[in-house]
Amino acid sequence: MDKIKGILKKYTMVLVLILVFILFSIGTGGKMLLPANVNNLIAQNAYVFVLATGMLLCILTGGNIDLSVGSVVCFVGAIGGTLMVNQKVPVLLAIVVMLVVGLVIGAWQGYWIAFKRIPPFIVTLAGMFVFRGLSNVILNGLTIAPMPNSYLNLFNTYVPDIFGGNGFNITCMLVGILTCIIYAVLQIKSRNDRAKKGYQMEPVGNMIGKTVVICIAILAFSFKLSQHKGIPTVLIWVVVTILIYSYITSKTTTGRYFYAVGGNEKATKLSGINTNMVYFKAYLNMAFLASVAGMITIARLNSANPTAGTNYEMDAIGSCFIGGASAYGGIGTVPGVIIGATLMGVINLGMNIMGVDANYQKVVKGLVLLAAVIFDVSTKKKEA
Hints:
Pfam families: BPD_transp_2 (PF02653). The chain is mainly alpha-helical.
């Protein structure tokens, strides 16, 4: 019984995601499972995956958040749109400029938070107003469109099928199969490495079961995408971001510093770790990923407009807490955040298909977020 409780606790949000997906599939009469809607799940929520990954680093440092990311997305998009459309600046140069702008913003906010110890809430709240205002100044309250085709090809198209499948993208399906093989091999390798080092390991049955479930999900997802247009280019950007930050948080000393600061900052500082730099890197990364999300957003909208990025910060924060990040810091993983972001995306898409009023959608998302935090807090009290 304890073993079952442990498994349920560990995979609570995965089970919730599966349940919610099934309920919406039934509620929409199967429309949720249409290949086009599976593709929309990625296209409409790509920015959430990117922003939530960066937001996790901020939350790990002690439950801190960044309220400015939506405005930074708009500001970076406004600069990129102005450069490419109005100034006819080459696409690659415009992308570099957008990334640099994001890093400068991150360094600015990170300086006040890390070295002057102004509360992140205040600094990023100020940033939310400042960069939203600057976005309107740059755009002069107008929408800039359309984006160059060479830019859209990087973010808003599909990977061509090299096998020339007729109505079914063979390349996409083969990528899904290859992904499953690589994942299974990595799981076996990781288990063997832990065995050689004498670390405690989960039962073989659990590992096999988890691997099978994940591979089935990957294959089903690949099959649906193959029936539509194949692999969206934005999915590549999302996957690369997830893989890089998963590696940083789980396999590097820099990544472990975020957890250490969130767990006990004083002890971390006494152990010789520069905690100021940990905070600085968290907000530098957040603004950098916000600039990436800005590039994705203007490509999806095919325009830069003054309202872009509105409430994006709430989606990112909600995804983190729903995905298991602790409101107190020190706990959370990138895979967990991705599950949270996917759950948010499924809820949004399902309610849109069902024609639920936008105001009620906000109510549902708010209640889901509150439930996730209540679960986290109640779990901590039981463990204490």
